[in-house]
C-alpha cells in the first residue's frame, strides 16, 4: 500500500507530504487502498465480506493516522526510493533503482533485501532509510543494535550507501499503525554506530567460521519461538549447563545498546 501510494504521489509531484497537501493525499490514499483491496479480494475471495471490509477499514484508519504524522513532521526529507531491492531478482513492483547485485559492505559482507523507503534531505543531500513496521514497538528502544535484536536499521543504512553511493545520515523504524502507536525510533548512522554493527558482523562471522551455532536462548525466548518442537521444551535449562567462554561473543552482542 505504501509503495503504491508513494509511486502515485511521485507521479503527481505531491511529495513530500505536508499539511497543505494532506487532504488531497488522503483522498489519493483512499483510492489506492480501494484498488489494492479489490485486487486482493479478487485473488483471495474472502469468505466473510463483513470481516474483510472491517479489516480494510482498519488499514484505512492506520494510513490516515500515519499520513497525518508524516505531514506534521515536514522536516526537509523527500521520499525518493520505494521498495529498493538489492541482491534479489528483478521485479516490476520494486523501485527502478533496485539492483540484482548484492550490497557489498566495506568488510566484504554481502547482503540482500528490500528497503521500504529511502529519503533524501533537500538541503544536506544525505539519505535516511525507513523500515515500516506493523507490530508493536519494543518496550526498550534500541540505540544501535538493541542487543542484536535490531540489526535492520544499520544494515539497511550500509546497504543503501553501498548501492546508491550516497552517505546515509539516519535509519528509522517507523511503527506506522495504531497498534504501534505511530512510534518512530531513529538511529543516527555515526562512526560509533558503524563500529557497533561491524563488531556484530565480526561476532556472527566468527561463530559461522567455527561452525559453532549453539542454542542459547535468552530467558523466556523459547515461548516466542516457532521451532520449539525441534529443540524440545527444556532448551533454556540445557543451555545454562553449556555456557562458558565460547559464548563470550554472544554475551557481548546481547549487551550492546
Provide a compact summary of the structure.
The protein contains eight helices and seven strands, in the order H-H-H-E-E-E-E-E-H-E-E-H-H-H-H.
Describe this structure in words.
The mean pLDDT is 93. The protein starts with a helix and ends with a helix. It is globular and about 60 Å long. The protein folds into three domains: 1-74, no CATH class; 76-209, no CATH class; 214-254, no CATH class. Helix content is 42%, strand content 17%. The chain is α+β, with helices and mostly antiparallel strands and 257 residues long. The chain has helices at residues 2-11, 22-44, 49-72, 152-164, 191-210, 228-231, 235-242, 248-254, and strands spanning 77-86, 103-104, 110-111, 113-121, 127-133, 168-175, 184-188. Strand 6 (168-175) and strand 7 (184-188) form a beta hairpin. It is built from eight helices and seven strands. The strands form two sheets. Strands 1-4-5-6-7 form a five-stranded mixed sheet.
Amino acid at each position: 500500500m505504501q509503495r503504491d501510494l508513494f509511486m502515485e504521489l511521485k507521479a503527481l509531484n505531491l511529495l513530500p507530504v505536508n499539511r497543505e497537501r494532506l487532504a488531497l493525499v488522503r483522498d489519493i490514499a483512499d483510492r489506492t487502498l480501494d484498488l489494492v483491496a479489490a485486487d486482493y479480494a479478487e485473488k483471495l475471495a474472502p469468505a466473510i465480506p463483513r470481516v474483510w471490509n472491517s479489516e480494510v477499514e482498519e488499514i484505512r484508519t492506520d494510513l490516515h493516522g500515519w499520513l497525518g504524522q508524516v505531514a506534521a513532521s515536514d522536516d526537509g526529507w523527500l521520499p525518493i526510493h520505494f521498495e529498493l531491492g538489492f541482491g534479489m531478482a528483478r521485479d516490476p513492483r520494486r523501485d527502478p533503482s533496485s539492483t540484482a547485485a548484492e550490497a557489498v559492505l566495506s568488510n566484504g559482507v554481502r547482503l540482500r533485501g528490500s528497503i521500504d523507503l529511502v529519503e533524501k534531505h533537500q538541503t544536506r543531500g544525505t539519505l535516511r532509510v525507513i523500515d515500516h513496521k506493523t507490530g508493536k514497538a519494543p518496550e526498550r528502544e534500541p540505540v544501535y543494535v538493541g542487543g542484536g535484536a535490531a540489526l535492520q536499521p544499520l544494515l539497511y543504512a550500509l546497504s543503501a550507501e553501498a548501492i546508491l553511493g550516497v552517505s546515509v545520515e539516519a535509519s528509522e523504524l517507523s511503527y506506522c499503525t495504531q497498534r504501534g502507536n505511530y512510534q518512530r525510533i531513529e538511529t543516527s548512522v555515526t562512526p560509533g554506530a558503524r563500529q557497533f554493527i561491524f563488531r556484530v558482523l565480526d561476532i556472527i562471522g566468527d561463530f559461522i567460521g567455527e561452525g559453532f551455532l549453539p542454542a542459547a536462548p535468552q530467558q523466556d525466548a523459547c515461548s516466542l519461538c516457532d521451532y520449539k518442537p525441534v529443540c524440545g521444551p527444556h532448551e533454556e535449562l540445557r543451555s545454562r549447563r553449556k555456557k562458558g567462554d565460547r559464548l563470550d561473543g554472544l554475551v557481548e552482542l546481547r549487551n550492546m545498546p
